[in-house]
Amino acid sequence: MRTRLARLLERRAQRARPFRRLTPTRIHTSMCQKDGLAELLISALAEASNNLPQLTTLKITTLNFTLSCNAGLPFWTDRLLGALMHDATSQFSHFRLAIAPGVPSSCLTTLLALQRAEEPEVTITFFETSADDLLTGLEEGRYDAGMSLRNAGAPAVKSQPLWVENVAVAVPLGSPLVAQAKITLAELLDYPVFRWPAETCLLLDQRLSFLPLSQQSIQHVTSFEMMALWVTAGYGVGLSAQSRIERAHAWGITMRPLSDGPYEIVTYLQRPHGRANVVSERFEHRAMLVARDSAACSNNP
């Protein structure tokens, strides 16, 4: 995780543009194109003072604004500017993130660490909730963004796919299946199969429904830990994200890929349509950076 975060921060630093001094004629255009905060500042100043063209320097770094003015501006301009900056930035200094079951992963850890490194002034409030409540909360305005393993079917919610995990088989160390390099779904017919429904994979569920498995063969559990408990004890095999199974090797289970896949578990970033939030937009941009880095590492192991 540290290596991935360090790599992302280095790339961001290399792409950062140096501070440039702006002429008065370019200030208005640059500010309005930057984001809603700068547009709010420039509009209020335009209404409050005719000396706007005397503004000579602009620097915006995340939510921190640095403005330099000619000495001829009225004394109250600094007070107005300070008040406007406080009001404009305070409404964007909190970020409410809802997280559905199954989402936590090394990629999410990297994303949150990157967010904290680049925007330490933004306070994140986490909400652990169900996938259904996450969508309802986004529509009702209780959350600014959410992360789920279920693609949103609601038209009011934008769903952005991020990183992908492959489903694999969790096998107890004493099972005959350990001798196989890969396993097909058909080879699971003779074993009870433990499945955590939070790890949504529609293709996998469809294929399982076509197999002649009895209702007793597919057993749903409430967490990966419960699935690992049953598998380690020798009561059957499990289907879960490959990385989770690999991290649980010390518990007495091993991972075998599914040969008739790929069966993918996709993490989605979800945001409400039509409610722009600059902090959410920057968070989504960082999430896409982590997703691209994760895909590159998967393609080049």
From TrEMBL:
- What keywords would UniProt list here? DNA-binding, Transcription, Transcription regulation
A GO molecular function annotation here is:
DNA binding
Q: Provide one Gene Ontology cellular component.
A: protein-DNA complex
InterPro entries, per the entry: LysR_subst-bd
One Pfam family matching this protein:
LysR_substrate
Q: Please verify whether the record's keywords include DNA-binding.
A: yes
Keyword Zinc set for record = no
Give start-end ranges for the coiled-coil region(s): none
Q: Which residues form the LysR substrate-binding domain?
A: 94-276
Instruction: State the similarity comment.
Output: Belongs to the LysR transcriptional regulatory family.
List the protein's name.
Answer: LysR substrate-binding domain-containing protein
